[in-house]
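Sample entry follows:

_____
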Amino acid sequence: MLNYYIVILTFLTFNVVEGLCQSDKVSRLKEILAETTKNDTSKVDLLNDLGQAFWVFQPDSSEYYGKISLELSQKLNYTGGKAFANRVIGVAHWARGNYEGGLKHLLSSLKFYQQNEDSVGMANATMNLGLIYYAQGDTERALSNYFEAYNTFEKYDRKLRLINTANHVGKAYFTLKEYPQAKEYYSFALNLSEKEKYNYGAGTALHNLGVLYKSEQKLDSAMMYCEASMEYQNIQKDREGLANNYETLGDIYFEKGDYINAISTYEDGLAMAKLVSSKKIQSNIYTKLKETFTRLGDYKKALAFQEDFTVLQDSLMSLDKMRAMVWLESKNELELKNQKLTIQEQKIALLKREQQLKNIWLIVFALGLLILSIAGIGIYLSQKAKHVKEKELLENKQALMTIKHENDRLKKEELQKELNFKNKELTSYTINFIKKNELMEDLKSKLSTIKQEAPVTMGKELNSVLKLVDRNFRLDKDWEDFRLMFEQVHQDFFSKLKAKYPDLTQNELKLCALLKLNMNLKESANILGIAPESVKTARYRLRKKLMLGKEENLVDYIIQS
């Protein structure tokens, strides 16, 4: 343990100045850029260096400089600049959670590095692609990318890149619950960071070790590593790293039963997560604050954090939906461009052939004026050319019909994908709806129990919380959102039912929607905010209104409607 503290103190002593100079590095690069007037490859390299310097703490600025660099690289046809600029933009997208954009730019980066036969550049892009695969849950594929990059960095003695990759390898092993291998790579990254005086690598490795020890319930060791990690992250101004560390320390306090320190630490992490716009960390901390206040019996604050979590999840769902729509639109646009290009090429070829035919006619006409004997040959050539043209026109028509059929098939596939997406969205929303109402019901039950045993002086406050819970059961907006999602999947369902059975009430229409989704009594009761027996009664009345016979099943009838 003494050796550990000597390592940490020595590392901090050598690296304080380096960490404080991170912002100075950005300032110096900006000053050099302001003085640069010539648009050449040196300016491209400078823009890329500036974009890379913003990676850790300001991804938006990183993307901004990467895009300027990419535009200039394309004008100069500078392959190395295009490779690095695409990598800068790709990592910036990854840092903000835009994995589609990140994947697109990193694959372009890899292509340009391959053109330049730049092995280290290819390894960098490969490692960054591994980050995206890991974020999307494909841990095995991410690990394969990491090892490919790791071997190259080791071969070319790129120690800082080796440190970062070792941290990512350890994290992948941790996800796969292979803890000895994870600890081996974390320790390697920490020791090499100490030797190279690399703050960012050390801070990351220490936090990773803290998370690992927490998972093994070695809470004191976990806290020690996290606190040591924060020293480096403060020097490096790694705000996202600090937000992660606050979340982990909050978890440690929670598991120790120290809820007051857990709340304080979670709140620090929440503030830092908002500063770097990390909705993932915010979402995690809202859930943990809700659980902490529930443990303390403060159900009002627990409910408030549950609502914050729900709002954030709704925004994340909207963002995912928007990304899916952008992906579909981009795909359609690319396919249409390819089709238009093919048709345009066919038109150009046809025009060229027509011009050739005109030239043949001119030659035949000129020869016919001079030598009447070749008139027959001219007619023959003319008829043959006409036949070729008609044949080509027929082939072009057939090609256009093929393209039209392919377009129709693609549209059907896109409509099916969109329907599947809406089905998943409806299912997710219904599950969240059920979970929310189950939480409301649980809170209501617990509050009612507390109210019976609580002093009279607490009665009014408990009544106000109970009313708040009841209002959450009766939110019309929830039903309106549910209805909109439902009708996107099951179009005209309500209007057809209403047209056939005009006496159906709004509550009966809601019940019909739940039956359409094949919800059982308990699930329907949770969503409607009533007892299962009341749902039975409502189903009985609905059968009468629908005039169903005894042999007819109500659920089957609604599902087939």
Summary: Confidence is low (pLDDT under 50) at residues 1-21, 322-338.
